[in-house]
Amino acid sequence: MNLAETLSRLPDEALFSLRSEPLLASRLASGGTLERTLADRSWAKEWLDAAGSSVRETLEWIVGRYEAMPFEAEKLEREMRHATRWTGAEIRVALIRLRKSGIVFAVRKLWGETLMYVPTDTAAMWRRLLLPVRSAPLETGEERNVRKPEADYRPPLSIQLLAVWSDIRKTGLPLTSKGLPHKTAAARIAGSLRFAASELGAIAFALPNAEGCPPPLSLALDLGLLTGVLVREPSAIAAAPDPQCPSEWADLLPEQFDRLLLGQIIDRFASQQPLLFGAAVAISQLVPFRWHVEREARAGLPEEASADFAAWIRLLEAFGWIERGEWRSESVLRWKIDPGFAEEDGEPIKRASAEKAFVLPDLEIMVPPGVPVGPRWLLEEIADRKAVDVVSTYALTKEACVAAGRRGYDPESLLAALERICEGELPGNVRLGVRDWFRTIGKASVESAVLLRIGDEKLTSLIERDPRAQSMLAEKIGPRVYRILPERADDVGRWIAEFGYSTDRAADSPALPAGKKETAGDLRAKAPAAGTAAKPAEAAIGGGSGGGWALRRHELGYYEQDPLLPDETELFPGVDGIPASWLSKPAAYHPSTRRKLIERAIAWRTALRIGSGQAGRIFVPETLDGDEGGWRVSGTVRPDGPFGASDSPGTEGKLTLTADEFGEMMIVLPGKP
């Protein structure tokens, strides 16, 4: 679940509490929003500077091991207690502070189990800050010596998806009774994608129905449903009712749209696999358009992440976002788009600039790489796609005009659309050609209709004299043959029965679908006028995780948001019933009382302070053996205490004490959560 979804599910009291946190409140007072502030890198850096060591290390542990995956607080505490110097009490308090700051959130399952998580988008931000990639790009002179293998051009994913979505808009994608695309239609539409199923190995675990739907098409469907370009109907995948380009990305350049798609793919796919997520975030930190040594980019990842790192690079290559080469026998790679996550070090990053398409006198349309997404989407509707390349080409044809006419275009609206795409006047022969083609369009039509045939002259007379006939029948098309109004098709049988006659459907007549109130063939009447405003049917590209095509193993949106934070009495049961002196300063106690302090510290998974002043030490008890007559406690001396650790290998910091070896002591609790 990303940050926007998380905040939208929080109750008002929880949101008020978040906004009251000092570091957040100061930003919000300057006009920022809660969502933007929590995702802002400068605020995150400020927060880290103010965070204590235990809180910072707890967050580093979470994003380094769980990444964006949900986790149980008990498991986190257990792992950190055995691998770090922090006590369970310190870890629990740190986790509460992370929740209070809007960094970690919690959901509660129906049966009461609680899961913690860092939103998928902010998890990437925190990983970049806490576990940055230490890879500098090659110097300019060194980059000249990079050798690139010969390879076919890979259009960026944004351009490939526009082609697939457009094909679905034109023909639809019928589904079987099992909800899978028909194989023939799926294979035809998937042909617009330039990558193979084998190149999607990194995210194959989340792409369903490989037998009925090729994995590349599954990905296109998932992203199309999320953008709102596509909608799922009972028996088909179709384009959204409004065919115009959603305004959220109409003005974006392909490179900018690719950046949003990258974020969505990390959010929806990589976030489900911790090692894959770490690899994806690491690669995203590389300076765009500059060559990096692959070994250095992978250096901060665990050894077991090597396969995920390689699979993610292969995925990015397939999408036309990254290219690879060789430099001094080293594998190198560089971004072909700006992923938007690298730190800028003063050197400006190359930015793409907007370009415009242009129509040639031979009615061919040239589309340079910088043409925004909106004009490309519109062009797919009114022209024939010829080639997708660095410069894509389309053609105005009579067939394209016929198809555009079915979608509601007339010659003037089509020419106006072309002028918007090309941002200028069109050649005269283009105008003449389009108008000439439209003169022969729409002069004949093929329609489906439901007919009423009468086999009795008396009934014919009764029907024609009945004043209700005008509300039932559209026209008389032959002797005793009438076309029924589409919306009254279900009522005609009852109407005829009132005259004492029954109706039968002809054996060769197609059955009218249940509940259908209209006949086919009225597409032109239903099509929106060209140029109407568009609204996506579902969330925009940065939106929700639900509603797509991919499999989601941990869909936190199904659980109830848990805004309640435990107080001190829940963190340390019984704390309000012990003497205050146990927590305030070291003191000497009777052996039986010492045992009670130790038992309480073990139960709370916290530390003891043994001794006072410079002679004191911080001791974390772990086990207590023996009875009242004689007992011993084993634990660990904190490495940050004044006493050194044991010199024996493998026992560093370990200590066992008997009842008589304890002097002054107190229970140490972390500060208020």
Q: What's the quick description here?
A:
This protein has 673 residues and is α+β, with helices and mostly antiparallel strands.
The count of strands amounts to 21
Low-confidence stretches: 507-546, 641-651
**Distance between the ends:** 25 Å
User: What is the arithmetic mean of pLDDT?
Assistant: 84
Largest sheet: 5 strands, antiparallel
User: What is the beta-strand fraction?
Assistant: 5-15%
Biggest sheet: strands side by side, in what order? 20-19-18-17-21
Summed up, the helix count is 28
Helix/strand structural class:
alpha+beta
Radius of gyration: 34 Å
The helix content is 25-40%
What is the general shape? Answer: elongated
Which features characterize this protein?
673 residues, alpha+beta, five-stranded antiparallel sheet, four-stranded antiparallel sheet, 14% strand, elongated
Molecular structure report:
The protein has 673 residues and is an alpha+beta fold. The protein has 28 helices and 21 strands. A five-stranded antiparallel β-sheet has the order 20-19-18-17-21. The chain has a four-stranded antiparallel β-sheet with strand order 9-10-12-11, covered by helices on one side. A three-stranded antiparallel β-sheet has the order 2-1-16, with no helix packed on it. α6 (53-66) packs across α9 (120-130) and α15 (274-284) packs across α17. The longest helix is centred in the first third of the chain and has 15 residues, at 157-171.
